[in-house]
Amino acid sequence: MQLIVIPALLLTAALAQGRQQPPAAEAPAVPAPAPVRGPGSRHLSAMRAPTALKVEGALDEETWKRADVADGFTQTEPGTGQPATEATEVRVAYDANNLYIRAYMHDREPDKIIINDIKKDFYEVDEDDFEVILDTFRDRHNGYMFLTNAAGAKADRLVASEGREVNGSWDAVWSVRTRIVRDGWIADITIPFRGLRFDPNADGTWGINFARRIRRKNEIDCWAPIPREYNVMRLSLAGDLEGVHPVDTPHDLRLKPYVLAKTVRDVGVTPYTSSGAAGVDLKTALGRSLTFDVTVNPDFAQVEADEQQVNLTQFSQFFPEKREFFLENSGMFYVGDAARNNQVSSVTTPDEDLLLFFSRRIGLTANGTPTPIPFGARLTGTTDGIGIGALAMRTDATDSTPASTYSALRLKRNLAPGSDVGVFYLGRDGAGPNAGYNHVFGVDENIRFGGVVDWNSFLVKSETPGKTTGQYAWRTSVNYEAQFIHVKVASMELGQGFEDDLGYYRRTDVRKYFLDMGLRPRSSWLQEHGIRELHPHVTWNYYDDVGGATIGKYLHNGQTFFFNDGGYTEFSANVYYNFLTDSLRLNRADPGAQQIAPGGYQWTQWQWIYNTNPSRPLSLGLTAIGGGLWSGTQKTVNATVNFHPGYHFRISTGVQHTSATLDRPNQKFDATLWTARTTYSFTTAMFLDALAQYDAAIRQFNTNIRFNLIHHPLSDLFLVYNEQRFTTPDAPVVGRSLVLKVTQMLSP
Predict the structure, then answer these.
(1) pLDDT tens-digit profile of 534-565?
(2) Coil, strand, or helix at residue 349?
């Protein structure tokens, strides 16, 4: 029955689109922009400062008055192409060492500017912010992104392939000063040239775009117009910054040593063990377009703990990469599909059926235990129009894993804006006669047709000792992205003998068929009643083995209502089918509980999601699920409460609870996971974070507390406390660790 609901929803949305009218906008504060003529139609001249400036951000007012002005911003949301409701003016200048950006965000109600966070790499979606993206090679593919809010918080990102991969853990040396004035707020940004890669022999034209978020109106404005189905990372639509000619091109050399001291007591072990460590990271520019990194004895003790989830599937849980060295420039090694622009979250969701390069395979065991890494090296950048990514890492042997060398090589040639072709190699070579090896070779392409159709494909061959057949994988997808409709169809296959020691995938001997389709109707009547957009949609996955037998399916059929204030709600019916080849035990609290027997299982679950406006001091997220689960039924509730009374402090508490009854075997069980996360930002350079999790099924309590002081640009002091305890009557001794780590960036 649930499959009948979706055509009706799609028809309803189509009728709503037929009566759609342009949404009413406030009286524009700026004149309508000139007609857009395509990529590069917006131009801004960078002004050469008359003298080299010694104080960052201290350009005098007379200098700024002579600079060219980027204004005439247009809305991306909610009224695509309409004039921004508040004026924004941006000026760009430079001297021998730095690029300077002054942004003046006019606001007729400055007392309503929303500031929710001042932490490094803040989440910009929930507050007013200003963003700039620099395409220094003007290749219309990759860029450097810098973000700030009215309190001077900083976030920076590396953008690859127009947002197919976004690296939020990349860090640059830059500064910003902000102030709120009587008619808005001003941001002065200083970006040293030595931290950017560009061609000093080019004509001095970079790609550039600016974006501004006015959160109380849930409005996004861009200088070079961006349709609402995309965002500012769509560099093929960016404007041009002309006349950037630094007199000097300084050699960028950074040396970042660290020292560490820690004391550890494992669970069930009485004595503490104390130890120390030291290591160093080196980064240098090879010319102005390549970056060479070397790490010796890296340590990642400061990395935030993984957040557990209640797992009701037959697959292991996916945890994202959080280690700084592996995240930086990771976009160069990404091979996969172009993610559809998602209004709910700006974070790209990985394809867990096959993620070809997954750096957590290096230096971490399957359960997350660190493996020693004595050294590693990486080369990334662009030369002669070819994107280059090369990585080599050595890991030491442990009781369960052999010493190995992991390596990756990727070459990518940019074609037209949004299009590229590439080749890649991934490998693990074990040290010793029985350590084995694994090599993966492949080609991929990402082609854009007419700006709205993307075709993405890859073909992979693997080599592993003892396997002779089925050592291949491929994927192809076509995506059509427009304002009213989006459609993506895809197919993928992993041969029975495929193996990728540097990848993440759930199973082999599988062929996947994928459909993602939906409508996005808007109308003035709906907006007057609080709903900005409807989104009836389907996301269907079918899984066969290579022989053609069905082994799984997931049919998501939903209707989402996006509210004007940024909240949303969704109703969906989800059909599951899974074929188990091995027994599965869901009741973690009882190791002796009967397991679900191998065989095929089909069920339907009904789901309701409700999220309130996250920019408010108090917000709620709720997911309620009822219906089937494997051979029985379930009632699941995931609830989160977020509270941030000001931009210094925020707390989030949540619970994931499932109560299930299984017919085969006949058993009942409950799974409950409590999570609490708090952050206190003393300043934009000093933070305290805490994550606590309690698994009621096994009565395990985990705590991770991190203090971070940025005592110098790209230099940190970390104090990290971890605790793991069980609350059972016969609980073992509590496990604890305390780590002090200090890094210092040296840049001669």
Answers:
(1) 999 999 999 999 999 999 999 999 999 999 99
(2) coil
Sign of the four-CA dihedral 25, 28, 34, 37: negative
**Residue 601 falls within a domain, yes or no?**
no
Q: How many residues in total does the chain contain? A: 748
What is the spatial distance between Cα 145 and Cα 138, in angstroms, rounded to a whole number?
14
The backbone torsions φ and ψ at residue 101, rounded to the nearest 5 degrees and listed phi first, read -130, 125
Q: Please list the residues that pair with 746 across neighbouring strands.
A: 255
Expressed as residue numbers, the domain containing 116 is 34-242
**Residue that finishes a domain, picked among 226, 242, 258:** 242
Q: Is the peptide bond before 665 cis (omega within 30 degrees of 0)?
A: yes
Bridge partners for 701 per DSSP: 694, 725
Q: Which of 185, 163, 159 is nearest to 172 (CA)?
A: 159
- Total domains in the fold of the chain: 2
- The reply to whether 385 falls in a domain is yes
At 13, is the pLDDT very low, low, confident or very high (cuts 50, 70, 90)?
very low
pTM of the model: 0.86
- Over its C-alpha atoms, the chain yields an Rg (Å, rounded) of 26
Structure tokens at 300: 């990642």
* Token output for 615: 């920019």
**Distance between terminal CA atoms of the chain?**
68
Tokens of 476: 């192809």
Q: What are the residues facing 496 on neighbouring strands?
A: none
Asked if 339 and 465 sit in the same domain, the reply is yes
CA atoms 165, 169, 170, 173: torsion sign: positive
- Looking at 410-539, list the stretches that DSSP marks H as alpha helix, in order from N- to C-terminal side: 524-528
Q: Is the dihedral of CA 320, 326, 328, 333 positive or negative?
A: negative
- Give 364-418 pLDDT, tens digit per residue: 877 778 888 999 999 988 887 788 999 999 999 887 788 899 999 999 998 887 7
Nearest C-alpha neighbor of 647 from the set 156, 127, 186: 127
Tens-place pLDDT, residues 83-115: 999 999 999 999 888 999 999 999 999 999 999
